[in-house]
User: Fold these one by one.
Assistant:
Number 1:
Amino acid sequence: MNIGLVLQSSNSFWELMQYSAPNKLEYCLKWKLKFYMDYCNKDDVNDKSSYERQTVILDAFKRCDWVWFMGADTIIMNQTIDVRQYIDDNYDFIIAHDVNGLNNDSCFYKNTPDTVEFINKTMHHLSHQPNDWFAQTDARRDMPNFKIKIVPQKLFNCYLYDSDPAYAGYPRNLPGDYKDGDFVLHFPAMCNMHRLELFKQYLPKVIK
């Protein structure tokens, strides 16, 4: 099974890549994953970069059976875990559910005709709706038989719900709260200055 990890950033998140990219490359070298890094020359992460995400995934399909898409504000914290354990060939798309709904900054696309159609429909909707996840939701509506697996956030998209001020308004003890030993840590809904501080704090704790 050939798996490619796609890491994408716009201008808005590019300063994070000095920390995010080496972490992903190290993991890919360890587990023999293909690594794709995309720079989108656009300040608005929800505009051109959302469209470009789809084109990079389609390009990765030329060499990959599955694509693992990750945002720039993520860290693979436990590199002893083989991502293949989360791959389920019975599905076309695997995504985690956080407290606000589905989050596609750490998710998996299977290289199938249905997935290619789903991505193309997403790109069509992005021409009218610049937000990537809303466009994917519209594409899913057009494809009721597209096989999506929704999994617990804990598997590969944890947040610092209980320990970071950015989530002070959320309930405590949410299932997706990051604990030592978890696979992936994600820093959504905060400024880049704070993200940079967290990268510096957590990268030394990565389990290798």
Note: The chain has a mean pLDDT of 93.
Number 2:
Amino acid sequence: MFWKKKPMATQMASDSAAIVDALRPKWKMFCETMPFPDDMPLADRIEAFSAPAMAGMFKHYPSTKVAPPGVLWMMIFTAVLESKTHVVADVNAAIAQLEARHAR
């Protein structure tokens, strides 16, 4: 019997919750173990986290390889918000800074 493959968009939708769940503890560990200066902006910390986060997404969830960058960033932002490591207003401000920085 052959299994029908899910379209990538459908697969991405089902993978996104798992990805956020995987990223949340990784963000907490990143915050606790990385020796960033106290005055380093949260946007810069999130951006530093995004490189290994996206590498992990691409490795473990092939559907992310074709996802738009905005979808990948949204999963990272959601994990950061849900981790409750920072005040929501600070995370939202950092998100706005990153969105402006990476706007095309």
Note: Residues 51 and 57 are 10 Å apart (CA to CA).
Number 3:
Amino acid sequence: MKQKYILFLIALIISIYFAACTSESYNYDKVSTEDSTKVKDSVQVDKAEIQKIMNSKKTYTVKSAPTFILSLAGQLNIGNSELSLNDNPAQFLEGQNFGVQNGWGISAAGKFPIDQKSGNFRILVQSGFNHFSNAFARSTATEFGTVQYNIISLGTGLENNFNPKFMVKPYVGAAIMGSLVSGKSNYTSSGVASVINIKNSFRLGFTVYAGVEYAVSDRIGINLGARFTNINTWLKKSSMDSDPNNISLRDAFSSPHIPYGGWKNFAFTSFNLGTSIYFGVKNLIFKF
């Protein structure tokens, strides 16, 4: 990973920490009471006094943790490892890289707290679509042609939200993901044009991430985060196909070597921005 991305992640984590230290999920109105540690004896309060307390305008409000969260986000993807653009068609043909680097994606995740009372640890179910192209963020494609991939993913994992009852909610998480990878390329090498279709190929991988949610209200929030994903950690494979122009993803070492085959990690860093929809948030109101 490039140094500037590492520095960005460090800055993001530090900002999340300090934001969490200063956030509040409660409010109070002109409450003036003695330190509770000084109270030694209990006091009997009659019904009239209880009613007087209930009618007081002085309140202390605490929000409960959400019982379910739906997160939707868009993301910018920056390739790592062998997912780095190289305009040399010979290296793409030899399987040294995937021929692309940057892309975009969308994702949706459902989060279920394991303990409804605390709301910290959550079971995560997520899905996503990512697209990579060597023409992404360029006015034109590369000189030798175009290469692009589509990835459809579904995964499950765990997430820890440090302050689920507060306005600012930093979190970290990890998930195992199953993905279908497909793609196509149309390039020219040594004056010979080649059109390759990459069939849907299943791979297992993982993602780790960190971010922060800001609750605009009890129902909706803004989320911002970063993640690292490796789509094909497991089940790599390189094999010959009956049709040389219609092949499976070739991302494992093979002997003898075959075109496009080579040990490659489909790994990338993502920066995402989206919204979180909260369900089941309640206000616990204490009157004084």
Note: The helical segments are 3-22, 47-54, 89-93.
